[in-house]
Known about the structure:
Layout: E1 2-12, E2 42-45, E3 55-63, E4 71-77, E5 87-88, E6 101-108, E7 112-119, E8 123-133, E9 142-144, E10 153-155, E11 177-182, H1 192-206, E12 216-218, E13 224-226, E14 246-251, H2 262-279, E15 286-289, E16 294-297, E17 299-301, H3 319-333, E18 348-355, E19 358-374, E20 379-393, E21 400-407, E22 412-418
Parallel strand pairs: 11-14, 11-17, 12-14
Antiparallel strand pairs: 1-8, 2-7, 3-6, 3-8, 4-5, 4-7, 9-10, 12-13, 15-16, 18-19, 19-20, 19-21, 21-22
Helix pairs in contact: 2-3
Amino acid sequence: MKVIRHTVTCILIMVIGPLSSQSILTSSQHWSNGLNNYRSATTYEIPPESKGFHVTAVSVKSMPVIPGEDVEISLSEYDGTRWTDFLPLEKDHELLDQSQQIFLPKYLSKATSSIKLRSNSAMEAEINFFGADHISTDSPQSLLVNECFCDTLKFVTRKEWNCPQTSGNYNFAKVTHLIVHHAASTNQSSNWADVVLSIWDFHTRTNGYADIGYNWLIDPNGVLYEGRGGGENAIGAHFCGRNTGTMGVCMLGNLSQVAPTEAALETLEKLLLYKSCQSMIDPGGEGLHNSSGLNLKIVSGHRDGCATECPGNLMYPKLESVRSEIIRMMAACQTTQTEVPTLHEDVKLFPNPGLEGIAIIRTENTIDQVVVYGSNGQLVRKISGDGNREVRMDNFSKGFYLVKILFSNGNASVQKLIF
């Protein structure tokens, strides 16, 4: 594996010479003209050792923050004479240090030879080039074993995506909310493991995080990557500075430009099902997120916590169907292959959430038996229906349950219940 990092500290905007992998260039000149003064754009050559890598990216960090400040980028391929239109760099909304303004990485094609940057204000900035080139892992073997009666889920370990960081000091907390992101990154790659590595580099080198901010990442092929602290209950850096109690899942790509693939959505649903079972939380419900003080859906998008487009305009509307599919899979997981339940709309289960460990089942059909499972699939209790149309459930502990109602006519219904 080859990994290069190249950092330039300068005052935007001015022209400087070519960069090398060893040099750090600085300048004290300020630029104070307007955004439309094209002569004020600064040109940088891509470090030659990064050309042709699978993944090359550039990110910008300005100090101090200037209100309303924006940075735009233009790219040139091959000869430096033909340039793309200037496009804005997207700002990172996860900063805890308000003295800095960080812009998300711009991913460059292999043919990119130079970039131009311009700003609507004079500002000091740090520019970080990243390049990576290694053999990807396309057949992950590590397993997440779902505690429901469900299939396992394979994932690529940190070692397999070549994370240079082998350990770290993490804080851990019980997960109550599942937060979906998009990387706002490239939508095409021949090596998604390198894209994951580039996000780690951006989070640790530019943002100053202790590790990659997300607990898990998913590429468009549906491959799952292990993130911060091994993915499990480590408090991340992804949810508006209020991360305790969350699991952050990042969908690779820019999902405001392209829709998520079916393969990526399927992996997302299986991962959130796994965590819902493990943490005994209701993926279709909502509740207080203590760290932010917000009442959030258990499965939420990044934008539900602060002002950001994440997880993308083409992903966010799909979260409702994601929740529904997790619930459907969870119900299916609680049945054996010989027991395929028929869902009855005339079943009423109330109050839901249950009140003080008590809930009532009421139906138009006579009930033979009620079988209650915990979220991890374990049998909790069997309650006789005695041919009645109403059954009282009481003395239940807090948690998420699946309730299988067996009717005297041989049909069944599976309902979710939270106390």
